[in-house]
Hints:
mainly alpha
Amino acid sequence: MVLDFTLIGGLTAGAGKQGVRHLLIAAIGCNVAWGIIDGALYVAGNLTARRQRFHLLSKIRNAENESAAFSAISSQLDSLLEPATSEEDRTRICQAFLPALSRIRLPEPGLVKDDVYGMAAIFWIDLASVFPAVIPFLIFSSEPRFALRVSNALLIVSLFAAGFMWGKYTGSNRYVAGGCAMLMGLALVGVAIALGG
């Protein structure tokens, strides 16, 4: 998002410090907005997943008989297991799961403390991603156009670093993952610029 703003800014921002100042305010405002949106989507996703678990476990516990409980489990597992198992295998698996699932504590269906912490963390991560874009303007305050180019370069390096870390986490080739993340980020920014965003 910040790279999108700064690259577009190189084309559209007014001359001098005032134009760059407006650009940075817009970039920070955008990240604040997306931090709030991403945090809200995180909470909504958690609520949905927890509600689904709550509904499944409640159906199992409140089932009138073992057959109804078995049906609830198989409705969740069959689609996952069907390609690699026979019907008899799935029946045995569901029967084995039934006692354990009956004892699992029901999850909280509403908002929990970890949702709030996660939402706050996502907000600050989104906001922190604007810092590499701001640093060059503090160092090269008398040369805003040069600072803008340095800012763009730092953000491109940040895309590579994010891909590199992702590659390390997933066990992929880190340099390839970093290069792909950088190229994909640049391609998406190019699409956004081409579409006027």
